Amino acid sequence: MKQAFLQLHLAVLLASCSGIFGNLISLDPVLITGYRMLLASVMLLLLLFIKYGRIIVGRKDSHILWLGVLLAFHWIFFYGSIKYANVSVGVVCFCLSGFFTALISPWINRKRISWVELLLSSLTLAGISLIFHFDASFRIGIVLGFVSSLLFAFYATLNERVNQSGQVVKTTALQMVGGTFAIGLLLPFYHVSKSSLSLLPSWEDLVFLILLALGCTVCMCMLLNRAQKTISAFTVSLSFNLEPVYSILLAVLLFDEDKMLGTSFYVGLSLIVLSLVLQMVYQKFSSQ
């Protein structure tokens, strides 16, 4: 059990590095996402082929490919938020996905809205509103982060059913393939609108992209897959609430982002952390 918890928290830590690499890589958000998904899909498909000798994809897997498209657009807006603001703002906006999920999940799954979850997650909305109101320089980044969290709420809700199969590695591989194809189709039109855009990464960017795909996608997926064999999905969900906290701490240590952030950010962040803590406590007692 201790090993499983270690694997889980390593997975959360790796996931929190996604925004860090997004800030380090000088490429456009579309290209960051495209290369990440391309490299990750190659790595995961290779792992599946080595383990099983073949990869079987049926008609029922087609919706998994579409989920990859949704994930790709979430990442594009997420990295856009980081580029227009910073890592801290990007991951703070990501916390809004809990608020959106509280609205979207009951609608898609035809269940009653949990007003307690909605109320608790609305503290996140209040926190981000506070940052948006006082820090005008972050507004474009916050809007992009707002869209990113909305897309992730749809993705997480739909992906919940897919993950019940227990084939996390295969599911992730297919989603990476779906996202890669979607960006591949989008790229020619996107390049026309931005003719000065460099499509090829520098050697430094390539190293960061490989680390992003290998660490934040492949290794994170493998660790999560192993941890879920012992640890409940509920515990996994609670643990991933720590992801934005880890990301902000790393951003402060690596990029000195604390010097870029004013009092309003920390007041807003306090409301968001309070929201996460209250949601964890509520979920713990409601599951008993």
Structure description:
There is one protein chain. The chain is mainly alpha-helical. It has one domain (2-286). 80% of the residues lie in helices and 0% in strands. It has 13 helices and no strands. Helix 2 runs antiparallel to helix 10 (203-227) and helix 3 packs antiparallel against helix 4. The longest helix has 26 residues, at 168-193. The two termini are 20 Å apart.
Keywords:
288 residues, mainly alpha, 0% strand, globular, DMT family transporter, transmembrane helix, transmembrane, EamA_dom
Q: Indicate the overall shape.
A: globular
- Order of helical and strand elements: HHHHHHHHHHHHH
Extract low-pLDDT stretches.
none
**Annotation field: number of helices:** 13
User: Structural class, please?
Assistant: mainly alpha
Q: How much of the sequence is in beta strands?
A: under 5%
How is the biggest beta sheet arranged?
Answer: none
Rg estimate, integer Å: 19 Å
Helix content: over 70%
How far apart are the first and last residues' alpha carbons, in Å? Answer: 20 Å
According to DSSP, the number of beta strands is 0
Mean pLDDT over the residues? 81
Oligomeric status: single chain
